[in-house]
Amino acid sequence: MTSDIIYAIRGLRKKPLFAITAVLTLALGIGANAAIFTVVRGVLLRPLPYPSPDRLMMLWTYNPRQGYDKDVSTYPNFDDWRRQSTSFEGMSAYTGFEFTLTEAGDPAQIRGAIVTPGFFETLGVAPLIGRAFGPREEGAAVDRVAMLSHGLWQTRFGGDPAAVGRSIVLNGVPHEILGVMPPSFAYREAARTGRVAPDTAQVWTPLVPSKRFAELMQQRGSYWLQVLGRLKPGVERTAAQAEMDAIAAALEREYPDVNSGIGVRLVPMHEEIVGDVRQPLLILFGAVGFVLLIACVNVANLLLTRAASRQKELAIRAALGAGRGRLIRQVLTESLVLAIAGGAAGLLLAVWGIDALQSFAPSNLPRLSGVRMDATVVLYTSLAALVTGMIFGSAPAVQGTTVMGESLKAGGRAASEGARGRRLRSTLAIVEIAVALVLLIGAGLLVRSFVAINRVALGFDQDNILVVRVDLPAARYPEDAQITAFYSDLAARMRALPGVESVGLGSSVLLSELSQSADLSVQGRPPLDRRVRSAPVTYDSVTPTFFEALGIPLRRGRLFTDADSATAQRVVLVNESMARRFFPDGDFLGKRITFGDPTNQQTGWATIVGVVGDTRRSGVDRAPREEVYYPFAQAPYRRMYTLIRTSGDSLALARAAQAAVWSIDRNQPIHSTRTLETILSETQAGRRFTLLLLGLFAIIALALAAIGIYGVIAYSTAQRTREVGIRMALGAGRADVLTMVLKEGAMIGAAGLILGIAAALALTRFMSALLFGVSARDPITFVALPVGLLLVAVVASLIPAARAVRVSPVVALRAE
C-alpha cells in the first residue's frame, strides 16, 4: 500500500493542474459539509448543559380559545399542576423581566428573569458560589434578593467572591446577592409564541407574593408564566402527559369559566429551544450534501479522463502480470490521496466557514455561540473524505481497467472506450445538472418568498425613524404623574433636535413581542360570548403624535388630542381589523369597551372615538391583528418607545437622542437605540440567513455543473476529432458540426432537467414552512430556472463546439 501511495503522489505531481483542480473542488464540498455539520451538531444534537437533560420538559398551556397551541400559564394553574402531579420531581415557573441596574458602574438596562424558588434545582444546576433561592425566599416580604450570571459578576464585580452578601440595586431597590451561577448556565427566555429567544438572563429574582405580584398570582385568567418540569426517573413523557391531561380536565370542571378548553402540552426542552431552526438547518445540511455530490461527480469525470489517458499504461502493467484487482487498487489509491488532500483543505475552509456563519447568523439562532470544531467534526470530515474518495474513484477505477486489451491496439480506444466512457461521463453530468437544479429551485422559492414578504404593505412608513426605548424604574417613578411628566419632557426635547419632523411615543414598537393583550368586552353584550371573546386583543398606550410619526392613516372619527388628559373621559382608538370583528355592521363610534371584568361595578369603560389603519405588528408574514390604542395621558406606561421621524439619516441623531434622555435623568439607562428599518430587518434575519446560504450553495452547484458539462463536451469533442474531420471532408459545414456538438450538450441538459424537476417536486415540499406567498410547486420557479439552467448547459457547450468547427479536415484525419 505504501508503494501505491508513493506512486499516486508522483503521478499527481506530474499533473499539477489536474491535482490542484480536484483538491480544490473536493475542499469546497467537504469544507462546506464540515462547517454545516458543526453547526447542526452544536445546535441540534448537542445536549443541554444540565444533568439528564432529556428529563426536562416545558409545560405549555393548550389554549384554543385564544388561538394558542402553546401558550404560557397562569400562576394558579401552575400551582395546581405542581401540587397535583406525581410524575415530576420538580416543577418551576418563570418569566422574563427587564431590570435597571445602578450603583455598580454606569446605569444599564439588563435582561433578567423572575423565577419561583426551586427553579435552579429543577434544572439541576448549583451556583458557582453562594446559594440558590430556597424555602427562606417563599415569603411575601423576601423579594429583595438576587442571583447573578457569571458574566454580570465578572463585568460588574470583577469576579470577586466577596460579592456574595453585598447589595446590587435593581430598579432602584437594593437586592442582596445570594449567589453566582456558573458560566455554562444559560437561562433562555421563552416568548408568548412558544419560540425560545437566545438572550441569556443576567440576573434572577424570586417570584413571591409581594406587592408587585400578589394580585397577578391570584388571577387564574392571566397568562404570563413559562413552566418547566423535570420528570422523575422511570417516568415516560407519555405517562406524564396523560397525568397532566387528567389534571387539566379536573381544573376545567372546577373552574369552567376560565379553564374551559384549557389543556397542557409537554414538550422536551431541547426540542423547544431548537424547534424553529431545526428545519432550516436540516435543509442547509441536505444542500451541502448535494454540493459535495456534485464535487464528487466533477472529480470522477476528471479521473475518468485521466484513466482514459492511462489505459495503455495500465494495459502494459496488466501484460506484465498485474491483476485487475491490483490495478483497481492503484487507481483507488490515487482517488483516496486526492480525497485526503481535499479533506485537509476542507477542514481549513470549515474553520473559516464556522467563523463566517457565527458572524452573520441571526441573533435568534440558539446555541450558536458555543459551536466549535472538535474531534468529532475532524472524525466526521475524515470519514467524509474517505467515503468521498471511494465514491468518485470507483467508476474511474472500474472503467479504466475494463478495456486494457483494446488499448494496445491502434484505434481501439476510439471504438471501445469512447462509447462506454462517453455514456458514463454523460450520466455523471446528468446527475450534476439534476442536483444543481434541485438547489436552484429551492433557492428560487426562497427568493420568491422573500420578494413577496418585502411587497407586503406594513400599514406604516418605516423610513427615517429612530426608535429609542426607555424603561423607567418604579422606585424612582412610582406615580403616573411622574411618568407622564418625564415622557412629555422627553418628547419636547426630541422635537427640538435638528432635522426632526415629528415625535411619537408608544408602549410597544410595531412588530415587537412586547405588546400587551387581553380579552375584551363590549358594553351591552353578554360578557361570556365565546364568539366575541375567543382571542386576545392587543392594546397600546400612545401619544397623540404617534400616528403622525408612523404615518398610520385615520379611517373614521378623530385621533387623540391633548384634551384627552388623565381627567377627561376615557377614550380609545381601534384599528380596522378590530372594527370589522367586533362591529361588522360598521356602528362602532361611541361604543364602549373594556379589558377588565365587565360584571365589576368598578371596571372602567372607554369610548371608541376613531378607527385607524391596520398595521402588521404581529409579523410581516402574519395577518393584522385586532388592536386598541389608549391615550398615554390616560394609561401611562413606564416602558415607552420614542419614535423620531427625521428628514435625513435618523441614526445620525442617536447620540443626541441619548443625551436628551440623560439631560432629564442622568441615572436613567437607555435600553436600545435603533432605526425602525433595523427592527424590521431583524424580524426576517432567519429567513434571510437561510436564503443566503442556500443561494450560495446553489450558485456553487450551478458553477460546478457548468464546469462538468463543459468538461464532458470538451473531452467528447476531442475524442471525436477524427469523426469531425471525416464529416467535414464529406461535405459537412461548420453549422452542421456546431449543431452536432451543441445537440449533445442540450440532450445532457434536458435529461438532467427532467430528473431534477422530478426530484425538486419531491423535495421542495419540505420547505413549505419557510415559504410565504408562494407555493412549494410554484410554476414560475419550476419553469424559469430549468430554462435558465438549460441555457447554461448550452453556453457551456459553446466553447468546445467553437473549437470543433475550427478543426482542419486534413489535421483531423491524421488524428488518432
Describe the fold and architecture.
There is one protein chain. With 816 residues, this protein is an alpha+beta fold. It is built from 23 helices and 25 strands. Strands 16, 17, 18, 19, 20, 21, 22 and 23 form an 8-stranded mixed β-sheet that branches. A 6-stranded mixed β-barrel has the order 3-4-11-6-8-7. Strand 1 (56-63) and strand 2 form a beta hairpin. Helix 2 (16-45) packs across helix 10. It is elongated, with a radius of gyration of 34 Å. The two termini are 35 Å apart. Residues 187-199, 410-417 and 528-534 have low confidence and may be disordered.
Key descriptive features of the protein:
816 residues, alpha+beta, eight-stranded mixed beta sheet, six-stranded mixed beta barrel, 23 helices, elongated
Write the topology of this structure.
Blueprint: H1 2-14, H2 16-45, E1 56-63, E2 68-71, H3 75-84, E3 88-102, E4 108-115, H4 119-123, E5 129-130, E6 145-148, H5 150-157, E7 167-170, E8 173-180, E9 188-190, E10 196-200, E11 203-206, E12 226-231, H6 237-254, H7 256-259, E13 263-268, H8 269-309, H9 311-319, H10 324-360, H11 375-400, H12 404-407, H13 412-454, E14 465-471, H14 480-495, E15 500-506, E16 516-518, E17 521-522, E18 537-542, H15 546-550, E19 554-557, E20 571-575, H16 576-582, E21 592-594, E22 606-612, E23 627-631, E24 639-646, H17 654-664, E25 672-675, H18 676-683, H19 685-719, H20 721-729, H21 734-763, H22 779-805, H23 809-814
Parallel strand pairs: 4-11, 6-8, 18-23, 20-22
Antiparallel strand pairs: 1-2, 1-12, 1-13, 3-4, 3-7, 3-12, 5-8, 6-11, 7-8, 9-10, 14-24, 14-25, 15-24, 16-18, 17-21, 19-22, 20-23, 21-22
